[in-house]
Amino acid sequence: MPSFIPPTRTLMGPGPSDVSPRVLEALARPTIGHLDPEFQRLMDEIKDLLRYAFKTKNTLTFPVSAPGSAGMETCFTNLVEPGDKVIVCVNGVFGTRMVENVIRCGATAIIVNDQWGTPVCLDKTEAELKANPDAKILAFVAAETSTGVACDTKSLCALAQKYNCLTIVDAVTSLGGSELEVDAWNIDAVYSGSQKCLSCPPGLSPVSFNDRAIEKIKSRKTPVQSWFMDLNLVMGYWDGTGGRSYHHTAPVNAMYALHESLLILKEEGLENAWARHIEMSKRLRIGFEAMGIEYLVEEKYRLPQLNTIIIPQHIVDEAAIRAKLLNEHNLEIGAGLGSLAGKVWRVGLMGHSARQENVDKCLAAFKAVMN
Ligand SMILES: *Cc1c(COP(=O)(O)O)cnc(C)c1O
What does the pLDDT look like over 238-273, one tens digit per residue? Predict the structure, then answer.
Protein backbone atom coordinates (compact mmCIF):
# COMPACT_ATOMS: atom_id res chain seq x y z
CA MET A 1 0.00 0.00 0.00
CA PRO A 2 1.49 3.41 -0.93
CA SER A 3 1.72 6.37 1.46
CA PHE A 4 -1.35 8.57 1.66
CA ILE A 5 -0.89 11.72 -0.39
CA PRO A 6 -3.82 14.10 0.09
CA PRO A 7 -5.07 16.23 -2.79
CA THR A 8 -4.32 19.95 -2.63
CA ARG A 9 -7.65 21.54 -1.77
CA THR A 10 -8.76 25.09 -1.22
CA LEU A 11 -10.65 24.95 2.06
CA MET A 12 -13.54 27.41 2.13
CA GLY A 13 -16.02 25.58 4.28
CA PRO A 14 -16.82 25.91 8.01
CA GLY A 15 -13.34 24.61 8.95
CA PRO A 16 -10.73 23.33 8.73
CA SER A 17 -9.36 26.29 6.78
CA ASP A 18 -6.27 26.45 4.59
CA VAL A 19 -3.09 25.91 6.57
CA SER A 20 -0.20 28.12 5.52
CA PRO A 21 3.06 26.48 4.38
CA ARG A 22 4.78 28.13 7.36
CA VAL A 23 2.51 26.29 9.80
CA LEU A 24 2.86 22.99 7.94
CA GLU A 25 6.60 23.36 8.06
CA ALA A 26 6.50 23.96 11.81
CA LEU A 27 4.39 20.81 12.21
CA ALA A 28 7.10 18.70 10.57
CA ARG A 29 9.91 19.73 12.97
CA PRO A 30 11.46 16.99 15.13
CA THR A 31 9.35 15.79 18.02
CA ILE A 32 10.77 16.45 21.50
CA GLY A 33 9.57 15.26 24.89
CA HIS A 34 6.45 16.85 26.38
CA LEU A 35 8.39 17.61 29.58
CA ASP A 36 11.56 18.81 27.81
CA PRO A 37 12.56 22.23 29.17
CA GLU A 38 12.49 23.55 25.61
CA PHE A 39 8.92 22.31 25.18
CA GLN A 40 8.01 24.03 28.45
CA ARG A 41 9.39 27.26 27.04
CA LEU A 42 7.17 26.72 23.98
CA MET A 43 4.14 26.17 26.25
CA ASP A 44 4.81 29.49 27.99
CA GLU A 45 5.06 31.31 24.68
CA ILE A 46 1.84 29.70 23.42
CA LYS A 47 0.03 30.89 26.56
CA ASP A 48 1.32 34.43 26.00
CA LEU A 49 0.34 34.39 22.35
CA LEU A 50 -3.12 33.08 23.21
CA ARG A 51 -3.57 35.89 25.72
CA TYR A 52 -2.79 38.28 22.88
CA ALA A 53 -5.34 36.61 20.56
CA PHE A 54 -8.06 36.47 23.23
CA LYS A 55 -7.25 40.01 24.46
CA THR A 56 -6.96 38.83 28.04
CA LYS A 57 -4.62 38.85 31.00
CA ASN A 58 -6.10 35.58 32.32
CA THR A 59 -3.39 33.33 33.75
CA LEU A 60 -5.51 30.27 33.03
CA THR A 61 -5.19 30.42 29.24
CA PHE A 62 -3.95 27.39 27.31
CA PRO A 63 -4.86 25.00 24.48
CA VAL A 64 -6.77 21.85 25.46
CA SER A 65 -5.19 18.83 23.71
CA ALA A 66 -8.25 18.03 21.59
CA PRO A 67 -10.57 19.81 19.12
CA GLY A 68 -13.04 22.62 19.82
CA SER A 69 -15.70 20.27 21.17
CA ALA A 70 -13.30 19.33 23.98
CA GLY A 71 -12.84 23.01 24.82
CA MET A 72 -16.61 23.19 25.05
CA GLU A 73 -16.72 20.20 27.40
CA THR A 74 -13.83 21.59 29.47
CA CYS A 75 -15.85 24.74 30.13
CA PHE A 76 -19.09 22.93 30.96
CA THR A 77 -17.70 20.03 32.99
CA ASN A 78 -15.63 22.37 35.16
CA LEU A 79 -18.11 25.21 35.64
CA VAL A 80 -21.43 23.37 35.79
CA GLU A 81 -22.36 21.28 38.81
CA PRO A 82 -25.22 18.82 39.15
CA GLY A 83 -28.35 20.74 40.11
CA ASP A 84 -27.15 24.04 38.61
CA LYS A 85 -29.38 26.05 36.32
CA VAL A 86 -27.79 27.29 33.10
CA ILE A 87 -29.38 29.64 30.57
CA VAL A 88 -28.39 28.65 27.04
CA CYS A 89 -29.07 30.73 23.95
CA VAL A 90 -29.77 28.53 20.94
CA ASN A 91 -29.82 29.86 17.37
CA GLY A 92 -27.94 27.07 15.61
CA VAL A 93 -26.21 23.71 15.92
CA PHE A 94 -23.59 24.70 18.45
CA GLY A 95 -26.12 26.17 20.88
CA THR A 96 -27.93 22.82 20.88
CA ARG A 97 -24.63 21.13 21.75
CA MET A 98 -24.25 23.45 24.73
CA VAL A 99 -27.68 22.30 25.95
CA GLU A 100 -26.54 18.69 25.59
CA ASN A 101 -23.44 19.50 27.68
CA VAL A 102 -25.51 21.12 30.43
CA ILE A 103 -27.85 18.11 30.65
CA ARG A 104 -24.95 15.66 30.77
CA CYS A 105 -23.46 17.64 33.67
CA GLY A 106 -26.65 16.87 35.60
CA ALA A 107 -27.83 20.48 35.42
CA THR A 108 -30.98 22.11 34.09
CA ALA A 109 -30.87 24.05 30.83
CA ILE A 110 -33.18 27.03 30.39
CA ILE A 111 -33.27 27.55 26.63
CA VAL A 112 -33.62 30.88 24.85
CA ASN A 113 -34.58 29.86 21.32
CA ASP A 114 -34.09 32.03 18.27
CA GLN A 115 -34.67 31.15 14.67
CA TRP A 116 -31.61 29.78 12.86
CA GLY A 117 -30.10 32.57 10.78
CA THR A 118 -31.06 35.27 13.26
CA PRO A 119 -29.02 36.52 16.24
CA VAL A 120 -29.68 35.80 19.91
CA CYS A 121 -32.45 38.11 21.12
CA LEU A 122 -31.23 40.26 24.04
CA ASP A 123 -34.74 40.94 25.36
CA LYS A 124 -35.69 37.29 25.49
CA THR A 125 -32.39 36.48 27.19
CA GLU A 126 -32.95 39.19 29.78
CA ALA A 127 -36.48 37.89 30.42
CA GLU A 128 -35.07 34.43 31.25
CA LEU A 129 -32.33 35.91 33.45
CA LYS A 130 -35.02 37.82 35.33
CA ALA A 131 -37.33 34.81 35.58
CA ASN A 132 -34.52 32.55 36.82
CA PRO A 133 -32.65 34.42 39.57
CA ASP A 134 -31.11 31.10 40.67
CA ALA A 135 -29.41 30.59 37.29
CA LYS A 136 -25.63 30.52 37.65
CA ILE A 137 -24.38 30.66 34.08
CA LEU A 138 -25.33 32.17 30.72
CA ALA A 139 -23.92 30.26 27.73
CA PHE A 140 -24.01 31.26 24.08
CA VAL A 141 -22.18 31.01 20.77
CA ALA A 142 -20.44 34.22 19.68
CA ALA A 143 -20.14 33.16 16.05
CA GLU A 144 -22.67 30.48 14.96
CA THR A 145 -20.81 28.60 12.25
CA SER A 146 -23.92 26.63 11.35
CA THR A 147 -25.74 29.78 10.19
CA GLY A 148 -23.13 32.54 9.75
CA VAL A 149 -24.65 34.74 12.44
CA ALA A 150 -22.66 36.93 14.83
CA CYS A 151 -24.20 37.64 18.18
CA ASP A 152 -23.81 40.67 20.40
CA THR A 153 -21.33 39.10 22.80
CA LYS A 154 -20.54 42.35 24.59
CA SER A 155 -24.20 43.07 25.43
CA LEU A 156 -24.94 39.46 26.43
CA CYS A 157 -21.98 39.51 28.83
CA ALA A 158 -23.19 42.79 30.31
CA LEU A 159 -26.64 41.26 30.85
CA ALA A 160 -25.11 38.20 32.52
CA GLN A 161 -23.17 40.42 34.92
CA LYS A 162 -26.26 42.45 35.74
CA TYR A 163 -28.00 39.22 36.82
CA ASN A 164 -24.97 37.74 38.57
CA CYS A 165 -24.33 34.99 36.06
CA LEU A 166 -21.03 33.74 34.74
CA THR A 167 -20.63 33.49 30.97
CA ILE A 168 -19.45 30.57 28.85
CA VAL A 169 -18.77 31.81 25.33
CA ASP A 170 -18.16 29.66 22.24
CA ALA A 171 -15.55 31.58 20.25
CA VAL A 172 -14.44 28.66 18.07
CA THR A 173 -15.05 30.55 14.84
CA SER A 174 -14.43 34.03 16.31
CA LEU A 175 -10.83 33.80 17.51
CA GLY A 176 -8.54 35.59 15.08
CA GLY A 177 -11.40 36.24 12.65
CA SER A 178 -13.69 38.84 14.18
CA GLU A 179 -13.83 41.17 17.15
CA LEU A 180 -13.44 39.37 20.47
CA GLU A 181 -12.45 41.08 23.71
CA VAL A 182 -12.31 38.59 26.57
CA ASP A 183 -11.32 41.06 29.32
CA ALA A 184 -13.05 44.22 28.11
CA TRP A 185 -16.35 42.35 27.66
CA ASN A 186 -16.03 40.40 30.94
CA ILE A 187 -16.20 36.94 29.38
CA ASP A 188 -15.66 34.46 32.23
CA ALA A 189 -14.93 31.28 30.28
CA VAL A 190 -14.22 30.98 26.57
CA TYR A 191 -13.16 28.23 24.19
CA SER A 192 -12.01 28.16 20.59
CA GLY A 193 -10.47 25.83 18.01
CA SER A 194 -7.22 25.70 16.09
CA GLN A 195 -8.65 24.95 12.63
CA LYS A 196 -10.93 27.92 11.99
CA CYS A 197 -9.54 31.46 11.87
CA LEU A 198 -6.20 30.46 13.40
CA SER A 199 -5.63 28.29 10.29
CA CYS A 200 -3.93 25.48 12.10
CA PRO A 201 -4.58 21.79 11.59
CA PRO A 202 -7.54 20.62 13.73
CA GLY A 203 -6.95 19.10 17.15
CA LEU A 204 -6.38 21.87 19.68
CA SER A 205 -8.82 24.03 21.60
CA PRO A 206 -7.56 27.28 23.16
CA VAL A 207 -9.46 28.13 26.36
CA SER A 208 -9.32 30.95 28.90
CA PHE A 209 -10.85 31.39 32.36
CA ASN A 210 -10.92 34.48 34.54
CA ASP A 211 -10.79 34.66 38.35
CA ARG A 212 -14.57 34.55 38.76
CA ALA A 213 -14.68 31.31 36.77
CA ILE A 214 -11.80 29.83 38.77
CA GLU A 215 -13.58 30.74 42.00
CA LYS A 216 -16.66 28.82 40.83
CA ILE A 217 -14.52 25.80 39.97
CA LYS A 218 -12.69 25.92 43.32
CA SER A 219 -15.94 26.13 45.28
CA ARG A 220 -17.44 23.03 43.64
CA LYS A 221 -19.04 20.58 46.03
CA THR A 222 -18.55 17.64 43.67
CA PRO A 223 -15.37 16.71 41.77
CA VAL A 224 -15.28 17.40 38.04
CA GLN A 225 -16.70 14.20 36.50
CA SER A 226 -14.10 14.16 33.68
CA TRP A 227 -10.60 13.23 34.80
CA PHE A 228 -8.95 14.40 31.57
CA MET A 229 -10.64 17.80 31.56
CA ASP A 230 -10.48 18.55 35.28
CA LEU A 231 -8.72 21.92 35.30
CA ASN A 232 -7.35 21.35 38.79
CA LEU A 233 -5.30 18.48 37.35
CA VAL A 234 -4.53 19.93 33.90
CA MET A 235 -3.04 22.96 35.60
CA GLY A 236 -0.32 20.86 37.18
CA TYR A 237 0.95 20.45 33.64
CA TRP A 238 0.18 23.81 32.04
CA ASP A 239 0.93 26.07 34.99
CA GLY A 240 4.69 26.53 35.26
CA THR A 241 4.72 27.45 38.94
CA GLY A 242 5.97 24.68 41.19
CA GLY A 243 7.37 22.66 38.28
CA ARG A 244 5.36 20.86 35.63
CA SER A 245 4.12 17.35 36.27
CA TYR A 246 2.88 14.70 33.89
CA HIS A 247 -0.84 14.85 33.18
CA HIS A 248 -1.14 13.65 29.59
CA THR A 249 1.24 13.59 26.63
CA ALA A 250 0.68 16.89 24.85
CA PRO A 251 0.45 16.68 21.04
CA VAL A 252 3.93 18.15 20.70
CA ASN A 253 4.01 18.81 16.94
CA ALA A 254 0.50 20.24 16.94
CA MET A 255 1.79 22.77 19.49
CA TYR A 256 4.59 23.81 17.12
CA ALA A 257 1.91 24.49 14.52
CA LEU A 258 -0.28 26.46 16.91
CA HIS A 259 2.71 28.54 18.03
CA GLU A 260 3.57 29.36 14.41
CA SER A 261 -0.01 30.28 13.50
CA LEU A 262 -0.26 32.56 16.53
CA LEU A 263 3.06 34.18 15.57
CA ILE A 264 1.64 34.85 12.10
CA LEU A 265 -1.46 36.40 13.70
CA LYS A 266 0.65 38.61 15.94
CA GLU A 267 2.88 39.69 13.08
CA GLU A 268 -0.17 40.76 11.08
CA GLY A 269 -1.80 42.33 14.13
CA LEU A 270 -5.10 41.06 15.56
CA GLU A 271 -7.15 44.08 14.49
CA ASN A 272 -5.65 43.93 11.00
CA ALA A 273 -6.69 40.29 10.77
CA TRP A 274 -10.26 41.21 11.76
CA ALA A 275 -10.26 43.95 9.09
CA ARG A 276 -8.93 41.54 6.46
CA HIS A 277 -11.78 39.11 7.12
CA ILE A 278 -14.29 41.95 6.64
CA GLU A 279 -12.59 43.13 3.47
CA MET A 280 -12.50 39.65 1.93
CA SER A 281 -16.15 38.97 2.78
CA LYS A 282 -17.06 42.23 0.98
CA ARG A 283 -15.17 41.11 -2.09
CA LEU A 284 -16.93 37.76 -1.99
CA ARG A 285 -20.34 39.40 -1.51
CA ILE A 286 -19.88 41.72 -4.48
CA GLY A 287 -19.06 38.70 -6.63
CA PHE A 288 -21.97 36.60 -5.37
CA GLU A 289 -24.44 39.45 -5.70
CA ALA A 290 -23.33 40.01 -9.30
CA MET A 291 -24.31 36.38 -9.88
CA GLY A 292 -27.73 37.00 -8.32
CA ILE A 293 -26.94 34.97 -5.21
CA GLU A 294 -28.61 36.03 -1.96
CA TYR A 295 -27.51 35.74 1.66
CA LEU A 296 -29.41 34.02 4.46
CA VAL A 297 -28.48 36.46 7.20
CA GLU A 298 -29.42 40.13 7.44
CA GLU A 299 -26.32 42.19 6.59
CA LYS A 300 -25.65 43.67 10.02
CA TYR A 301 -25.57 40.24 11.70
CA ARG A 302 -23.32 38.51 9.16
CA LEU A 303 -20.04 36.91 10.10
CA PRO A 304 -17.26 37.87 7.68
CA GLN A 305 -15.58 34.50 8.18
CA LEU A 306 -18.66 32.38 7.41
CA ASN A 307 -20.88 33.45 4.53
CA THR A 308 -24.18 31.61 4.25
CA ILE A 309 -25.73 31.90 0.81
CA ILE A 310 -29.14 30.70 -0.30
CA ILE A 311 -29.02 27.96 -2.92
CA PRO A 312 -30.64 29.38 -6.09
CA GLN A 313 -34.03 27.86 -6.92
CA HIS A 314 -32.94 26.44 -10.26
CA ILE A 315 -30.39 24.15 -8.59
CA VAL A 316 -32.07 20.77 -8.19
CA ASP A 317 -29.13 18.77 -6.83
CA GLU A 318 -27.07 20.91 -4.50
CA ALA A 319 -24.82 18.03 -3.44
CA ALA A 320 -23.82 17.54 -7.09
CA ILE A 321 -22.71 21.18 -7.26
CA ARG A 322 -20.57 20.76 -4.16
CA ALA A 323 -19.11 17.57 -5.58
CA LYS A 324 -18.26 19.41 -8.80
CA LEU A 325 -16.58 22.22 -6.86
CA LEU A 326 -14.51 19.63 -5.03
CA ASN A 327 -13.69 17.31 -7.92
CA GLU A 328 -13.24 19.83 -10.72
CA HIS A 329 -11.96 22.85 -8.78
CA ASN A 330 -10.50 21.31 -5.61
CA LEU A 331 -12.71 23.71 -3.67
CA GLU A 332 -14.42 22.68 -0.46
CA ILE A 333 -17.44 24.60 0.80
CA GLY A 334 -19.92 23.64 3.53
CA ALA A 335 -23.45 22.27 3.23
CA GLY A 336 -26.36 23.51 5.30
CA LEU A 337 -26.91 21.83 8.67
CA GLY A 338 -30.13 20.77 10.40
CA SER A 339 -33.15 22.75 9.23
CA LEU A 340 -30.94 24.58 6.71
CA ALA A 341 -29.76 21.39 4.96
CA GLY A 342 -30.41 21.63 1.23
CA LYS A 343 -31.30 25.31 1.54
CA VAL A 344 -27.93 27.02 2.00
CA TRP A 345 -24.24 26.70 1.34
CA ARG A 346 -21.65 27.92 3.79
CA VAL A 347 -18.59 29.62 2.36
CA GLY A 348 -15.83 30.10 4.87
CA LEU A 349 -13.20 32.82 4.75
CA MET A 350 -11.20 31.81 7.75
CA GLY A 351 -7.63 32.77 8.57
CA HIS A 352 -5.25 31.88 5.74
CA SER A 353 -8.30 31.16 3.54
CA ALA A 354 -9.39 34.81 3.81
CA ARG A 355 -7.32 36.14 0.97
CA GLN A 356 -8.01 37.65 -2.42
CA GLU A 357 -6.68 34.68 -4.37
CA ASN A 358 -9.16 32.37 -2.63
CA VAL A 359 -12.12 34.70 -3.06
CA ASP A 360 -11.46 35.06 -6.79
CA LYS A 361 -10.91 31.34 -7.21
CA CYS A 362 -14.15 30.59 -5.37
CA LEU A 363 -16.19 33.03 -7.48
CA ALA A 364 -14.72 31.67 -10.71
CA ALA A 365 -15.45 28.09 -9.63
CA PHE A 366 -19.06 28.94 -8.73
CA LYS A 367 -19.53 30.63 -12.11
CA ALA A 368 -18.18 27.55 -13.88
CA VAL A 369 -20.30 24.98 -12.05
CA MET A 370 -23.55 26.92 -11.95
CA ASN A 371 -23.65 27.37 -15.73
C1 LIG B 1 -16.27 24.00 14.74
C2 LIG B 1 -17.05 24.48 15.90
C3 LIG B 1 -17.10 23.77 17.11
C4 LIG B 1 -16.51 22.41 17.29
O5 LIG B 1 -15.16 22.37 17.08
P6 LIG B 1 -14.46 20.97 16.67
O7 LIG B 1 -13.03 21.35 16.54
O8 LIG B 1 -15.10 20.53 15.40
O9 LIG B 1 -14.70 20.02 17.78
C10 LIG B 1 -17.79 24.34 18.16
N11 LIG B 1 -18.41 25.53 18.04
C12 LIG B 1 -18.39 26.23 16.89
C13 LIG B 1 -19.07 27.54 16.83
C14 LIG B 1 -17.71 25.72 15.79
O15 LIG B 1 -17.70 26.42 14.65
Answer: 886 667 888 999 999 999 999 999 999 999 999 999
**Residue 306 β-bridge partners:** 303, 348
- The answer, yes or no, to whether residue 235 has pLDDT greater than 90, is no
Does any ligand 1 atom lie closer than 6 A to the CB of residue 96?
Answer: no
Q: What's the DSSP call for residue 353?
A: G
Counting Cβ atoms within 10 Å, is residue 5 exposed (0-12), middle (13-18) or buried (19+)?
exposed
Q: List, for residues 4-32, the tens digit of each pLDDT value.
A: 999 999 999 999 999 999 999 999 999 99
Average pLDDT along the chain: 97
Q: What's the 97 CA to ligand 1 centre distance in angstroms?
A: 10
This prediction's pTM: 0.98
pLDDT exceeds 90 at position 81: yes
| CB 27, CB 256: distance < 8 Å | yes
φ/ψ of residue 64, rounded to 5: -70, 140
* 160 closest CA partner among 89, 216, 221, 219: 89
C-beta 81 within 6 A of ligand 1: no
Q: CATH class for domain 21-266? A: alpha beta
Q: Which long-range contacts (CB under 8 A, 24 or more apart) does 230-234 make?
A: 230/77, 230/78, 231/60, 231/74, 231/78, 234/62, 234/64
The domain over range 10-15+270-370 is classified in CATH as 3.90.1150.10: yes
**pLDDT above 80: residue 203:** yes
Where along the chain do its domains lie? 10-15+270-370, 21-266
Closest CA to 256 of 57, 71, 34: 34
